[in-house]
Amino acid sequence: MKYVEEEFLEIKQTWVLLVCIGATSGLGRLVSGRVSDSIPGLKKIYLQVISFLLLGLMSMMIPLCRGFGGLIVVCLFLGLCDGFFITIMAPIAFELVGPMQASQAIGYLLGMMALPMIAGPPIAGLLRNCFGDYHVAFYFAGVPPIIGAVILLFVPLMHQRMFKKEPLKRLEQQSSCFHSSLPTSTKSSEVLQDLLCCLWHG
Protein backbone atom coordinates (compact mmCIF):
# COMPACT_ATOMS: atom_id res chain seq x y z
CA MET A 1 0.00 0.00 0.00
CA LYS A 2 2.93 2.32 0.61
CA TYR A 3 3.91 1.92 -3.04
CA VAL A 4 0.41 2.93 -4.21
CA GLU A 5 0.41 5.97 -1.92
CA GLU A 6 3.75 7.11 -3.37
CA GLU A 7 3.02 6.40 -7.05
CA PHE A 8 -0.69 7.30 -7.21
CA LEU A 9 -1.17 10.27 -4.92
CA GLU A 10 -4.74 10.93 -6.06
CA ILE A 11 -5.93 7.38 -5.26
CA LYS A 12 -7.40 6.93 -1.80
CA GLN A 13 -9.15 3.56 -2.20
CA THR A 14 -6.04 1.41 -2.02
CA TRP A 15 -8.05 -1.38 -0.36
CA VAL A 16 -9.44 -2.25 -3.81
CA LEU A 17 -6.15 -3.98 -4.67
CA LEU A 18 -6.37 -6.27 -1.63
CA VAL A 19 -9.96 -7.15 -2.49
CA CYS A 20 -8.93 -8.00 -6.06
CA ILE A 21 -6.09 -10.24 -4.90
CA GLY A 22 -8.29 -12.02 -2.34
CA ALA A 23 -11.22 -12.53 -4.72
CA THR A 24 -9.17 -13.96 -7.59
CA SER A 25 -7.13 -16.07 -5.16
CA GLY A 26 -10.33 -17.74 -3.97
CA LEU A 27 -11.50 -18.18 -7.56
CA GLY A 28 -8.12 -19.64 -8.52
CA ARG A 29 -8.32 -22.23 -5.75
CA LEU A 30 -11.72 -23.41 -6.95
CA VAL A 31 -10.76 -23.52 -10.63
CA SER A 32 -7.35 -25.12 -10.08
CA GLY A 33 -8.91 -27.97 -8.09
CA ARG A 34 -11.18 -28.85 -11.01
CA VAL A 35 -8.41 -28.46 -13.56
CA SER A 36 -5.85 -30.53 -11.62
CA ASP A 37 -8.37 -33.37 -11.22
CA SER A 38 -8.57 -33.67 -14.99
CA ILE A 39 -4.77 -33.84 -15.41
CA PRO A 40 -3.29 -37.30 -14.74
CA GLY A 41 -0.21 -38.04 -12.66
CA LEU A 42 2.71 -35.70 -12.30
CA LYS A 43 1.67 -33.55 -15.27
CA LYS A 44 -0.07 -31.34 -12.70
CA ILE A 45 3.32 -29.84 -12.03
CA TYR A 46 3.15 -27.92 -15.32
CA LEU A 47 0.22 -25.93 -13.92
CA GLN A 48 2.51 -24.99 -11.06
CA VAL A 49 5.18 -23.95 -13.55
CA ILE A 50 2.74 -21.68 -15.40
CA SER A 51 1.47 -20.11 -12.17
CA PHE A 52 5.04 -19.45 -10.95
CA LEU A 53 6.04 -17.87 -14.27
CA LEU A 54 2.99 -15.61 -14.30
CA LEU A 55 3.52 -14.72 -10.64
CA GLY A 56 7.08 -13.62 -11.33
CA LEU A 57 6.16 -11.70 -14.47
CA MET A 58 3.23 -9.94 -12.78
CA SER A 59 5.48 -8.87 -9.90
CA MET A 60 7.93 -7.36 -12.38
CA MET A 61 5.12 -5.58 -14.22
CA ILE A 62 3.90 -3.66 -11.16
CA PRO A 63 6.47 -0.82 -11.56
CA LEU A 64 5.55 -0.57 -15.26
CA CYS A 65 1.91 0.26 -14.49
CA ARG A 66 1.32 3.97 -15.12
CA GLY A 67 -2.39 3.88 -14.27
CA PHE A 68 -4.35 2.51 -11.34
CA GLY A 69 -6.50 0.42 -13.69
CA GLY A 70 -3.44 -1.42 -14.97
CA LEU A 71 -2.36 -2.10 -11.40
CA ILE A 72 -5.78 -3.61 -10.67
CA VAL A 73 -5.41 -5.98 -13.65
CA VAL A 74 -1.96 -7.07 -12.44
CA CYS A 75 -3.31 -7.69 -8.93
CA LEU A 76 -6.14 -9.80 -10.37
CA PHE A 77 -3.59 -12.04 -12.08
CA LEU A 78 -1.43 -12.13 -8.94
CA GLY A 79 -4.34 -13.43 -6.89
CA LEU A 80 -5.23 -16.01 -9.53
CA CYS A 81 -1.66 -17.35 -9.63
CA ASP A 82 -1.54 -17.42 -5.83
CA GLY A 83 -4.71 -19.52 -5.70
CA PHE A 84 -3.38 -21.93 -8.29
CA PHE A 85 -0.01 -22.70 -6.75
CA ILE A 86 -1.35 -23.00 -3.20
CA THR A 87 -4.02 -25.51 -4.25
CA ILE A 88 -1.87 -27.63 -6.57
CA MET A 89 0.93 -27.93 -4.00
CA ALA A 90 -0.73 -30.80 -2.09
CA PRO A 91 -1.61 -33.02 -5.11
CA ILE A 92 1.93 -32.65 -6.46
CA ALA A 93 3.36 -33.70 -3.08
CA PHE A 94 1.13 -36.81 -3.15
CA GLU A 95 2.35 -37.69 -6.64
CA LEU A 96 6.03 -37.20 -5.77
CA VAL A 97 6.41 -38.84 -2.35
CA GLY A 98 3.20 -40.84 -1.91
CA PRO A 99 0.38 -40.50 0.63
CA MET A 100 2.48 -41.69 3.60
CA GLN A 101 5.03 -38.86 3.36
CA ALA A 102 2.87 -36.17 1.72
CA SER A 103 2.03 -34.38 4.98
CA GLN A 104 5.71 -34.18 5.90
CA ALA A 105 6.60 -32.86 2.43
CA ILE A 106 3.88 -30.19 2.61
CA GLY A 107 5.16 -29.16 6.05
CA TYR A 108 8.68 -28.75 4.66
CA LEU A 109 7.32 -26.68 1.75
CA LEU A 110 5.38 -24.34 4.03
CA GLY A 111 8.43 -23.99 6.28
CA MET A 112 10.62 -23.10 3.30
CA MET A 113 8.02 -20.61 2.07
CA ALA A 114 7.99 -18.89 5.45
CA LEU A 115 11.66 -17.89 5.18
CA PRO A 116 11.39 -15.58 2.12
CA MET A 117 8.02 -14.28 3.33
CA ILE A 118 9.67 -13.14 6.57
CA ALA A 119 12.82 -11.80 4.93
CA GLY A 120 11.08 -10.16 1.95
CA PRO A 121 9.57 -7.03 3.57
CA PRO A 122 12.78 -5.90 5.34
CA ILE A 123 14.80 -6.45 2.15
CA ALA A 124 12.21 -4.47 0.16
CA GLY A 125 12.50 -1.64 2.70
CA LEU A 126 16.30 -1.63 2.40
CA LEU A 127 16.09 -1.51 -1.40
CA ARG A 128 13.61 1.35 -1.18
CA ASN A 129 15.98 3.29 1.08
CA CYS A 130 18.90 2.63 -1.29
CA PHE A 131 17.17 3.44 -4.61
CA GLY A 132 14.44 5.82 -3.48
CA ASP A 133 11.49 3.74 -4.69
CA TYR A 134 10.08 0.20 -4.69
CA HIS A 135 10.73 -0.53 -8.37
CA VAL A 136 13.91 -2.56 -7.80
CA ALA A 137 12.22 -4.48 -4.99
CA PHE A 138 9.40 -5.58 -7.31
CA TYR A 139 11.87 -6.58 -10.01
CA PHE A 140 13.81 -8.70 -7.52
CA ALA A 141 10.57 -10.17 -6.15
CA GLY A 142 9.78 -11.59 -9.59
CA VAL A 143 13.08 -13.46 -9.92
CA PRO A 144 12.59 -16.33 -7.38
CA PRO A 145 9.24 -17.54 -8.84
CA ILE A 146 10.72 -17.63 -12.35
CA ILE A 147 13.76 -19.57 -11.12
CA GLY A 148 11.43 -21.94 -9.26
CA ALA A 149 9.39 -22.49 -12.43
CA VAL A 150 12.52 -23.40 -14.41
CA ILE A 151 13.62 -25.87 -11.71
CA LEU A 152 10.14 -27.43 -11.57
CA LEU A 153 10.33 -28.17 -15.30
CA PHE A 154 13.03 -30.79 -14.61
CA VAL A 155 11.25 -32.48 -11.69
CA PRO A 156 9.12 -34.88 -13.82
CA LEU A 157 12.21 -36.04 -15.74
CA MET A 158 14.15 -36.68 -12.52
CA HIS A 159 11.15 -38.49 -11.04
CA GLN A 160 10.91 -40.81 -14.06
CA ARG A 161 14.63 -41.62 -13.89
CA MET A 162 14.36 -42.48 -10.20
CA PHE A 163 11.47 -44.84 -10.90
CA LYS A 164 13.42 -46.52 -13.70
CA LYS A 165 16.43 -47.09 -11.43
CA GLU A 166 14.42 -48.64 -8.59
CA PRO A 167 13.53 -51.93 -10.41
CA LEU A 168 17.18 -52.33 -11.46
CA LYS A 169 18.32 -51.89 -7.86
CA ARG A 170 15.81 -54.48 -6.69
CA LEU A 171 17.03 -56.98 -9.31
CA GLU A 172 20.64 -56.37 -8.28
CA GLN A 173 19.77 -56.93 -4.62
CA GLN A 174 17.90 -60.14 -5.43
CA SER A 175 20.74 -61.45 -7.58
CA SER A 176 23.33 -60.59 -4.91
CA CYS A 177 21.25 -62.40 -2.29
CA PHE A 178 20.98 -65.42 -4.60
CA HIS A 179 24.73 -65.52 -5.26
CA SER A 180 25.56 -65.08 -1.59
CA SER A 181 23.41 -68.09 -0.75
CA LEU A 182 25.15 -70.34 -3.29
CA PRO A 183 28.34 -71.13 -1.31
CA THR A 184 26.42 -72.34 1.72
CA SER A 185 24.21 -74.58 -0.41
CA THR A 186 27.21 -76.09 -2.22
CA LYS A 187 28.96 -76.77 1.09
CA SER A 188 25.90 -78.48 2.51
CA SER A 189 25.60 -80.65 -0.62
CA GLU A 190 29.27 -81.67 -0.30
CA VAL A 191 28.75 -82.65 3.34
CA LEU A 192 25.74 -84.77 2.38
CA GLN A 193 27.74 -86.51 -0.33
CA ASP A 194 30.54 -87.34 2.15
CA LEU A 195 28.04 -88.77 4.63
CA LEU A 196 26.43 -90.93 1.96
CA CYS A 197 29.84 -92.24 0.86
CA CYS A 198 30.75 -93.12 4.45
CA LEU A 199 27.48 -94.93 4.96
CA TRP A 200 27.83 -96.80 1.66
CA HIS A 201 31.39 -97.93 2.28
CA GLY A 202 30.86 -98.42 6.00
UniProtKB/TrEMBL annotation:
UniProt-listed Pfam families? MFS_1
Query: What membrane topology does the UniProt entry give?
Result: Multi-pass membrane protein
GO cellular component term of the entry, any: membrane
Q: What protein name applies here?
A: Major facilitator superfamily (MFS) profile domain-containing protein
* TM region positions: 15-33, 45-64, 70-94, 106-124, 136-155
Q: Which InterPro entries match?
A: MFS (IPR011701), MFS_dom (IPR020846), MFS_trans_sf (IPR036259), Proton-linked_MCT (IPR050327)
Where's it mainly located? membrane
Q: Which terms does the record give in the GO molecular function aspect? A: transmembrane transporter activity
Cite the Major facilitator superfamily (MFS) profile domain residue spans from the record. Answer: 1-202
- State where the protein is found: Membrane
Print the keywords alphabetically: Membrane, Transmembrane, Transmembrane helix
